[in-house]
Structure formats: structure tokens, C-alpha cells
Amino acid sequence: MKESFFRTMTWLHTWTGLLVCWLLMLIFFAGTLSYYRYEINLWMKPELHTNVLQQYQDLDLAQTLVQGQTYLADTAPGAKTWMLRLPTHRLPFVGYAWMDAPKEGERRGKFHEHIVTTEGEMISDVRATKGGHFFYRLHFDLHYLPVPLARYLVGFATMFMLLAIITGIVIHKRIFKDFFALRLKKGPRSWLDSHTLSSVLALPYHLMITYTGLITLMFMYMPSAMEATYDGNRKALQKEITPVSTPAKPSGTPGELVSLSTILPSVLEQAEGKPIRDIRIQNPLDANSQIQVVLRNDSRVADHEYQLLYQGTSGEFIGKVGDSPSSMGKAYDTMIGLHAGRFAEPTLRFALFLSGVLGCVMIASGTLLWSKKLRQKQQKQIDQGARPSLGLYITESLNLGVIAGLPIAAASYLWANRLLSADYAGRYDAEINLFFTGLGVTLLLAFLGRINWRGALLTGGLMWLGIPVLNALTSSENLITNIVKGQWFIAWIDLLALMVGGLMLLAASYCKRKIDNKVGNKHKTKVQDAPTTNSVKAAESAQAIKEHV
Amino acid sequence: MHTQSAISLTSMRQKHGHTFTVINRTLAALVGGYLATASCAALLALILPMSTADSTLLAMMLSFALWASLAIYAFAAKSGTRVWILLATLIAISLVGVGAAQ
Amino acid sequence: MVSILLPLTALNLSAFVIFALSSFSTYRELLGRAPTENTGKLLKIAAALLLTASLWLCVASKSWGLGLLLWFGNMTMTALLVALLLTLRDELKRKKPKRR
Predict the structure, then answer these.
(1) By three-state DSSP, how is residue A2 classified?
(2) Closest CA–CA distance from residue A104 to any residue of chain C (Å)
(3) Residue A9 in domain
(4) Which residues in chain C have their CB less than 8 angstroms from residue A178's CB?
(5) Going by fewer Cβ within 10 Å, which terminus of chain A is more open, N or C?
(6) pLDDT in tens, A135-159
């Protein structure tokens, strides 16, 4: 297309990246936070901060199961399913949960969960919040949009990302040369350096996460193969690759559930040392009830549930649900497992999180590099009083609004969680709306030219640094007591907030220094130039002058 | 003055040519590339020598790599016609193959 | 987990330090003299050997899947550390003349 293959690839890299970069930024940002979605969940429920965290090996299994069974029989006799959730590395507490029968028009019934404290007391009153699941859903469902549309948009952006990565590898001729060099304060050169560094260092991660991301939704994106072999019947295909237990149908006649402690010896024998993740009982008080014991498979990447099945009234062992019998089914489970990282213990999880951050840096530095180059091209005309082109104005505003706006939005979400009253009825949605308010306001201010990088990063940084303080004021525990008690699962979010806040302040101070360095150089203003009304422009130039003095 | 307008005219013609090329290649990469990939995936699902479930999954999992390759070829190829010929051939072969295999 | 994390990090970190040294300009900057062409090559080979050793360590003590994942993850982190340290050094060096 262009005169040379290399030029064509460069062109393709620029445009595939640029067209979707802001959406990709949102996807990467939400996905990166999702590595800590259960930590965020717990942080956002301060009712569960004291005497709740437990470890599986410290548990008296038989007692917990019997207690749970009695509790659920008293509390939720009419439920469709009971669930006894035992501590895992992602959900380190005991919960007795149940699901109502689905109402008309619902796919699933409502889910309730009461948490058991280490003292054996029940906590039933926990504030309504979507917690970390919000970021998880935002990652592929976006929000406010119909789910299919959102997923197609995300898939589209992901495909562009894949193309951008491949072309990026092609055009980077010296991939193993000089990639340690990060030269700061050299204008576009610095942005190119950080773009290269963040891309090359985490290249296996970027490729893996993009490709497996497409695979997670491949039944939606690439249904043709399934159409040809299964007439589009996904359930028939799924049945062959993941043997799931057929759900027991309620018979209508009441029956008595066997005591869970009587099947425990059999469970422990069949589990072969694997810890129990949870026990689900379908139609608990019906003659045709079924007990599913779900085992943990922490040591494997593949995302696949092992189950042991028992007849509910007799306690008779029915069978096992094990690995996918199909080799490609195993490969598919591994791909999904790689993407979601459910297996990852803390160090690996942190590495995945940092790789996600590098992905955000890659996207941000790429688009910043582009806008810097565009500005350089126009600088002469801008110095002579011309307005920046519309493209430059939009790019720069979106960069500021999205890159600085997303951390501000996430911080607003966490702040909203504690500032909204715990029993305010609309709080579940209000928290989410406040996330988008944070993003929207930053975007609006960026487009109006009322905020600059330094201001936005400073705001975001302070908001994040305030999070441990906010937690200390509104929870029964604080960062220090959490660390002393070894409650790293909760303390981690505070620590993360300190890291994010610190980095944002560092970035803000870097912006400031940049302006200081250029004192006397009146050609280069750091303030966003927005072609708005004259009064705004006048205010802006006044501001610019103030900053230069 | 005269030369200047002549230059701007050629550059405009080039620009229009460029716009056409970009739209043509983009369509080939996205729409044509997708259709070719989807039909190839359907064929692979039917003919790969393994169980139906396995071949279906494998075809789906590989399809994105194929689409990405086709998309990059769509931009890298010498002429747009060549791209469309390749895509059309792929689609035709796959569809005939799917018809025969089903 | 922890048991292989330390040797793994040590191996990868030294590999990337050596790798960074194998570049002409970094070598001259850090050691004060220019490397010969052979030195550069030898350093690259040494770095590659160290990375192979760390890959072997990962795969031998974990499954292929988890081992590869750990290897790549740890490489990303250690290389990032080396890059940031080099950048920090640059920054500090740049600041010095100002303070005098």
C-alpha cells in the first residue's frame, strides 16, 4: 500500500492503535484492576474487616458444614440452591449462601450470602456494592450499553490491539537492542522510549492477554465453526468439552437432606488431598436433592471445576466431574485460565498486575507519542497564533481526560463506597454512576481546557493517597491494624492505593518540573489549548502566564 | 501560481487515490478478512482429523490468528485486487468444502 | 513457590544486568571504557545462558504451563527493574551538575 512493507506496517500500527486506544485504555485499566477484584470486594465491605478472614487448614470442617446446614435450613428453607463456601486464596472466609428460585424473566435467582466470623457469629447486614466485580464487568461489558453491543465493541478493539501488536513487532527492527534505554525529558523521544520499553518488556503478556481475550468470547465472535458442526448449538458443544452434572429436577415431594458430616469421609477420600472450595445443594429440602462438592484446583492454570456428586437424601456417591475429556477442551480451559489468572498466588498475581499496568503505559505512551508528534508539526503555526487543528485538540483532550480520568474515576468509586451511607437504598448504582461522573468530569474539563496534566494527576494522586485514610476513618480496622493482624487481603488495597497515588504525584511533579525547565521559553505552553470562546482563551493565557512567572 | 495549482491538483488526486486505497484495504481486512476466516474456520471444524468437539474448538481458537494474518496481508499486498482475489478464493474453496463435507 | 522465586529472580536479574552491559553505550557509561566487540558478544551469550538456566529451573520445578508463565512474568519484572535503575542513574547524574 505504501511504498515499502515497513512503511505500510508503521502506518497500520499507528492507525490500528490510535483508532481504539481510548477504549483499549478503559479495557486494560478495568482488566488490570480485576486481578484484585476479590480484594476490592472485601475492601468495599468494611462490615467484613474484623474477625472474618480465615484459612482453610485452620477450619473444623465437620463442624462448619453441620453449622451451615442447620443455619440454611432455618434461614432459607425455600431456596433453590444452598451454598457453603469455604475459605480459598481468593475468598478467604466462610460464607453460607443461597439462591432463590428464578422469578419470571430471570435467568438466575437472587443470590444471598451471610458471612461467618471466626467467633462463629453471622454477619448478614453488609452494604450493597458491586465491589471489584464492577471492574471485572466493565472490562468486557462496559456499562450503560446493551451487553452484546458492548462485547462486540470490546472484541473489535481487541482485534485492533492484536494487529497493533503484530505490526509493532514487525516495525521494531531491533527488538533486543537498546530496550533498556529510557531517556527522560527528551520530548517525543521519551514517549517512544517508554512505549518501546513497556511493550517489549511485557510482550509475551501482551500477546497472551490479547489472544486469550479473543478466545474468552470466541463463541460470540467466531460462531461459524460451531454453526458448521453443531448447527450453532453451543450447549451441545459445551456438553462434550466440559462434562457438567445435569442439574437435579425437584420432584415436588419433600425429603430430608442427609447430614453433610456423614458424607465428609467419602468426600475427603475422593478429593485426594484437594481442598474443598464449596458445597452446593440443589433442591435442598426435596426428595430429589443433589450435593455437589466443588474442589479447588489451585496448582493448575486451566480454569476448570472438579466436582464430586452425591444424592441428597441418601448421601450416596453418584460420580465425579473431572477434566475435560477433549484435549482441545483442556487447551481452551488453559487459555481461559491464563486470561483470568484465577490460579495466581500473590507474587504471580502482582506480576500479572504490573504487566497489566505496563499494558496501560504502552497504550498511553503510544497515543501521547502520536499527539506530541502532531503538535510538533503544528508548533510553528501555533506559535504564530494559529489554533491547533481539530484532530490535535480532540487527541490531546481525550488523552488527558481518559489517561488521567480513569484513575480519578476509580478513586471516586472507592470514595463513594465509604461516603455514601451504608443503608442508602440507591447506593449500589450510585457508586457506579460516581465512577462515570469522575471520568466524565475529567473529560469535560479536559475538552474545555480547564484542567492540565499537572492538575489532573495531582487530583487523582491525592484522591488515591486519601484512600487508606478514608479506610481508617470508616472501617473498624486500618492499614496498620490490618498488617499487624496479618490481614494482607484487606491491607493490600490500601497499599496499592498508596503506590498508585505516589506514582501519580511523581508524574505530576514531573509535569511541573517540565514547566519550570521551560521558564522563559514562551513558545511552549503546557496548558491545553482549546478552541473555545475568547473569554476562555483569555483566562487560559492568563493562567499560562501565571504558571510561567 | 499556475504550477502551484497543478501541484495541488496532483496531490489532491493522489489524496483521493489514497483515500480509496485505505477504504478498499480496510474493507478487505475487516469484512473480507472476517468472512474468509469464518468460512475457513467452518471448513477446518469439519475436516480436521479429530473429534468434532476438538476440531470445532481448535478451528475457533486458531481463527483469530488467521484473521490477523489476512488483515495484515490486506494492507501489505502490492495491489488491492490481489487481496480480494485471495479472499474470494479462500471463501469459495471453504464454502465448497463445507458443502461437500456436510 | 518462594523457594524458587529467589534463585529465579537472581538468575534473571543478573542475566538482564549482563544483557544491558552488552550494549556498547551502557558498558562505556557504567565501566568507563569501551567494550571490545568480543566482550559484547560474550556478554550476550552469558545472558542467554543465564536465561536458559532460569527457564530450566522454572519448568523443572513447575509444570510447563505454570513454569513458562512464571519465567516470562519474572523476566518482565526483573528487566523492568534493570531499566528503571538505569533510568534513575541517568536522572541522578543529570541533577548533579545543577547542585554544584
Answers:
(1) coil
(2) 44
(3) no
(4) 23
(5) C
(6) 999 999 999 999 999 999 999 999 9
